[in-house]
Design brief:
three-stranded mixed beta sheet; 5 helices; alpha+beta; 62% helix; GMP Synthetase, Chain A, domain 3
Length: 123
């Protein structure tokens, strides 16, 4: 990834975070975090990864509402950054946090079972 792609992606991530914080109610949309923004080499498309706190239904509902607001979000972004053109936004639901939490839970369970097996082996 080029330095320019990274800089533009970072700028878009920062501005989108501000847009979401200012214009999207947590009670309606949940707690939304922009986890990453990846730009295409021509800087015309921004792949925006978002994380939504809540259960699967809340995440899906929030994601669908964000998708419906995409033209407005892009317009706000265009007014807040100085680029030749405003990139098309493609939103992805980032489930990395969920995967990490499942792995941690699994590791804890394995650790507890191993501890229980060690205790019974000593008897």
């Amino acid at each position: 990834m080029s330095v320019r792609m990274e800089k533009v992606g970072s700028l878009i991530k920062e501005q989108l975070s501000k847009i979401f914080q200012k214009n999207f109610s947590m009670s309606e949309y949940g707690f939304i975090t922009i986890t990453d923004v990846l730009m295409t080499p021509d800087l015309k498309i921004a792949k925006v990864y978002i994380s939504v706190y809540g259960d699967k239904n809340k995440k899906r509902k929030s994601f669908d509402m964000i998708e419906a607001q995409k033209p407005m979000i892009r317009s706000m972004l265009g007014h807040s950054i100085r680029l030749k053109f405003t990139p098309e936004l493609i939103f992805y639901l980032d489930e990395t946090i969920d995967k990490v939490m499942r792995l941690e839970k699994l590791f804890r369970k394995i650790h507890e079972e191993k501890g229980n097996n060690d205790d019974s082996a000593e008897l």
